[in-house]
Specification:
By secondary structure, the protein is an alpha+beta fold. The protein folds into two domains: 82 residues, Alpha-Beta Plaits (2-Layer Sandwich); 72 residues, Alpha-Beta Plaits. It is 30% helix and 36% strand. The chain is built from five helices and nine strands. Strands 5, 6, 7, 8 and 9 form a five-stranded antiparallel sheet that branches. The chain has a four-stranded antiparallel sheet with strand order 2-3-1-4.
């Protein structure tokens, strides 16, 4: 209950803060891990133990020899993500973890889309590719394979436009991300190549 002197405002603010922290949103987490067998399983198991669905996962070499870079996209609250990150640091092979969700970052995906194409539809499909700055990387008598990179929204939009022609196959990499500017998620010192 609110009094005329403003008592109760702090209680309401605290409750609103709790509501915000428990709200689920997509988080982009980057982990640098030792490049050894079984690490992917141990790291992804920490998300499974907390009953999270990993929406996207990409893994590849990093700029540091012996370390791989994992990029996870999970739908979770800030509090839950913080707890999983604390648990991930207990995995011996984990060198560094960063939640870049609220950072200035570049996020991209790669998609390969195989679309039905006839002599009469090929021109329209090529126009869509040009509009989205996508590349046609394979041509067959009855289909085209298109390569596109960009944000998830861009790929979703292109997919929807191509759907009317008939999608035969779709492959997406999942999100890769890098912070903008001088901020890094690596161990490479500035000025060292």
């Amino acid at each position: 209950m609110m009094t005329s002197n403003g008592a109760g405002t702090a209680d309401r603010s605290a409750l609103e803060g709790v509501a915000r922290s428990s709200k689920h949103s997509k988080h982009t987490i980057i982990a640098l891990v030792e490049d050894r067998p079984g690490v992917l399983n141990r790291v992804s198991s920490k998300w499974r133990q907390r009953n999270f669905n990993i929406e996207s996962l990409t893994v590849g070499p990093s700029e540091t020899p012996g370390l791989s870079r994992m990029t996870f996209v999970v739908d979770a609250s800030n509090t839950d993500v913080d707890q999983v990150i604390k648990q991930l640091y207990k995995v011996i092979e984990v060198a560094k973890i960063t939640d870049i969700t609220h950072s200035e970052a570049i996020m991209r995906e790669l998609a390969l889309i195989k679309v039905k194409a006839t002599a009469s539809t090929r021109g329209s499909i090529i126009e869509i590719c040009e509009m989205f700055r996508a590349n046609i990387i394979d041509v067959a008598q009855d289909s085209l394979v298109i390569e596109t990179t960009g944000t998830e929204d861009k790929i979703d939009a292109m997919f929807e436009m191509l759907r009317t022609y008939g999608i035969k196959e779709l492959v997406r990499t999942g999100r890769v991300a890098m912070t903008r500017g001088a901020t890094t998620v690596s161990f490479v010192e500035e000025g060292v190549a």
